[in-house]
Specification:
This protein has about 160 residues and is α+β, with helices and mostly antiparallel strands. The chain folds into two domains: about 60 residues, no CATH class; about 70 residues, OB fold (Dihydrolipoamide Acetyltransferase, E2P). Helix content is about 40%, strand content about 20%. The protein has four helices and five strands. It has a five-stranded mixed β-barrel with strand order 1-2-3-5-4. It starts with 19 loop residues before the first helix and ends with a helix.
């Protein structure tokens, strides 16, 4: 525990979570798909202007390339808007394991990720190593209950 936080046990990553590269590529794809209609419209207008000899084909192509370059240059600033919101990434309904006692809060491991958690049932202690099910979230803290046969079937 170099930083004082507990660690998920080795091999606890049941599902592969997306890497930072995968997330960045998805954000870029969403951004480009959002820009495509405007690029198409401007491209059609520039083709029309080039065909009517108002602009040369070279000037139209240059304007179009500058438009695309401008949009791609703005991507780092705009990418925050294309990130999925936090609730979509919360592991609601998934199973995890208590890393330390939850009395009332502690750490759990879900899909190889370490999360701060609290028990749903007030006053009920969850022991380290116990299987838990994520039932909700409050801020960045997951609300969990100890897994029983009934809670496993509800999924």
């Amino acid at each position: 525990m170099p930083n004082g936080l507990p660690r998920c046990p080795p091999g606890s990553n049941d599902k592969m979570s997306p890497t930072g590269h995968d997330v960045a590529m998805r954000e870029l794809l969403r951004y480009v798909l959002w820009q495509l209609p405007s690029w198409g419209l401007v491209g059609l207008i520039l083709i029309g202007l080039a065909m009517s000899t108002v602009l040369s084909a070279r000037t139209s192509a240059l304007i179009f390339c500058l438009l695309v370059a401008k949009d791609l240059a703005l991507f780092p600033v705009m990418r925050v808007a294309y990130r999925p919101s936090a609730p979509a990434s919360w592991p609601i309904g998934q199973r995890g394991r208590a890393i330390e006692p939850l009395e009332p809060s502690g750490y759990i491991c879900v899909n190889g990720e370490l999360w701060r958690a609290e028990g749903c049932q007030a006053g009920k202690r969850v022991s380290p190593g116990s299987a838990v099910v994520v039932r909700g979230a409050r801020g960045l803290t997951l609300l969990v209950e100890e897994e029983t046969e009934g809670s496993a079937r509800e999924r």
